[in-house]
Every structure is written in structure tokens, then in C-alpha cells.
Write a structure and sequence with these properties.
By secondary structure, this protein is mainly beta. The chain has a single domain, classed as Sandwich (Immunoglobulin-like), CATH 2.60.40. It is built from one helix and nine strands, in the order αβββββββββ. The strands form two sheets. Strands 1, 4, 6, 8 and 9 form a five-stranded mixed sheet that branches. It has a four-stranded antiparallel sheet with strand order 3-2-5-7, with no helix packed on it. The longest helix has 13 residues. It starts with a helix and ends in a 5-residue tail after the last strand. About 14% of the residues have low confidence.
Length: 125
């Protein structure tokens, strides 16, 4: 017995709608990561440095994650889980007076206070 084409199409659609879809491994852990934040200032902490590029560099792989500082010198960078070195863009005659140590980020971490202080080389003595 042959089913009419429309009845056959309905049967196929109905059976597909009942299919549960792909089976997901719910035990697998995703590497969501977290956020690194800080402020870039000069030797005078009241002066923020806007528009500076701050990079979080994954220590083992060298992958870079960049942000640009806001008007107050603040920055935030979302990164995957890992260990990071932080770099800030310097201009001619500038040196880092204070910079953050390496940081390790786990899922949902917020690692704040990763601040930089920059001075002109003549002021860095």
C-alpha cells in the first residue's frame, strides 16, 4: 500500500520532531575564563592614561588579548582560563615604575587591581 505524498511528508516531519537531538556530554568542562582589570596611571595617581593598549599574554601559548584604557586609565580584559603576563603600551621616554605580576585565571575569576604606574624616564629616578 502506498501512502499519499502529503501523508508520507507528515510522517517524516512527525518522526523528526520526536528525535531528541544530539547527545551532549554534560560532564565536559568548558573553559569559560574570567576577567583581568586594572588602572594605568602616571607617577601622579590622579592622572589616568586614556587610549593605551593593555595586553594579557598567555604565558604558555603567547596568545594575546587586548584592551584600550578608558578616560581614567581603567581597563578590563576577558580571557580564557590560563596564566597571563600583562603588558602596557609605552611612548617615547616612558618607563614602567610599577607593574603587575603574572596572574592565573580560573573560571569566573575577576582579578582586579592589576595596575600600572608609568613615568617619563627623567622622572623614574
Amino acid at each position: 500500500m502506498r501512502l499519499p505524498q502529503t501523508l508520507l511528508s507528515c510522517a517524516i516531519v512527525a518522526s523528526a520532531a520526536c528525535h531528541p537531538g544530539p547527545v551532549l556530554d554534560t560532564t565536559a568542562r568548558l573553559s569559560v575564563g574570567g576577567t583581568i582589570a586594572g588602572i594605568v596611571t602616571t607617577s601622579d595617581p590622579s592622572i589616568g592614561l586614556a587610549g593605551r593598549k593593555v595586553s594579557a599574554v598567555d604565558v604558555p601559548t603567547g596568545s594575546r588579548f587586548d584592551a584600550t584604557t578608558a578616560l581614567n586609565g581603567g581597563y578590563t580584559i576577558k580571557v580564557p582560563e590560563g596564566t597571563y603576563r600583562l603588558d602596557v603600551e609605552l611612548r617615547d621616554g616612558e618607563a614602567i615604575v610599577k607593574g603587575p605580576d603574572q596572574t592565573h585565571i580560573n573560571n569566573s575569576d575577576l582579578d582586579s587591581d592589576r595596575d600600572f604606574v608609568i613615568a617619563a624616564k627623567r622622572d623614574a629616578r
